[in-house]
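Two proteins, back to back. First:
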Amino acid sequence: MASDLEIHDAASSSTLSCGYDRHFRTLAESLPQIVWLASADCCVGYQNRRWCEYTGLSSADSMGFGWKRAFHADDLPETLRRWERAVREGEPCELAFRLRRSDGVYRWFQGRAEPLLDDENRPVRWFAVCGESDDPVRAEQSLRPALTPGKRLDRKLLEKVLAIAPSYIYVFDIAARRNVYGNQEARNSIGYSADELAAMGSELLSTLMHPADLARFDEHLARLDSAQDDDVLEFEYRMRHKDGSWRRFRSLDAVFDRSSTGRPASIVGVATEITERKNHEQALRRNEDRHRALIASEKHLRRVLDSLFIFVGVLTPDGTLIEANKGPLEAAALSPEDVLGKVLWDTYWFNHSPEVQDQLRAAIDRANRGEPSRYDVDVRMA
């Protein structure tokens, strides 16, 4: 990862100070959401790699106004209109729009853009975070109030990322085994405030992380020990919510600081709750298991029915035959094509007698009224 990040827009060109640049870049590149920096006229000067991964567009192709090609044509005019209004009023704006994925599929996204203010509280650049959403009209989570004047632009940028991101962002001290920073998203994720998590100190993981995942976390730290500054490692685990339930998370972690010997001293991470997704995957697997069991049962039942010499058929409400067992077919030297799709009383077995046909019609009528029928008929077999 470069130590200096050039961020350009149509109006200005500046380099963030080394410290905040590194922190901002680490956070922006680790976030599972799309991050933009743009000028007031929507000229994009920076986008994180999540944008490139999702859209398939290169960073160079997306600079300036190249980002528009990924937007759904029906959503772009309203997006620009709301952006222009936000710029005029100098206020944050929330947007719902569709982006074209690299495979050509459009998906809904929820975005929020906020102005970055200079020391005189004037907007000089806009910062936006966008996340995929199944509900295009869902409101964004509450965000922190605007920063007070007098702080440097680079610090405002970093704090804006921490405030807007709908993920839990933390800095973890490896030696002390505790969080030294966490944004307020923790309360939404596991029910504890950042202060409550900090108060747990070195007991944080042993208190909240699932025992089965705790040993794997040490393996995760061992992998980070050999990671480069631009490496982002993934870790999935369970944490106990304040209400006692287990929640699943996916973290993207990177080295934040190193000791004098060059070993990682702390890591910065972005944790996204995936409980609902995991539950959905488990439910899907259970449904697939049930489906396979049903298919196996159906095959077994068909073998049993095919071994019977009596006639067994499946009919539609109007009497059309859609299934028939093998025994009567073979006895009458018929193929399925000879009988399936015909009303039962017109098939070879029963069309030899008008009386039998009337009897079958009456039985179908009673069945459609919910009345069972038991009767004997003459069946022609050969």
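And the second protein:
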Amino acid sequence: MCHRTFIPNYNFCFYIQPIDENNRKITLNLWNEKVNEFKGKKEDINAIKNAKIGEYNYIKNVSLINSSRVSINPGVPEATKIRE
């Protein structure tokens, strides 16, 4: 589920999802063309490479940048462990 927020001159949305087996939460921020490019669903595991990491109100956030790469449901052991 994407929560869209209006920011003048930007297309922005964010997702909040569990990040690991301890159910820690993280916000995934998508900006501009990344909003329409992102094809992940609520139940998917997303591996993200080369993104900007920050924190706001004690919640970690990841923002995709131009060089970011997203793998949806990657075939790595960590993804399988999180899904279980």
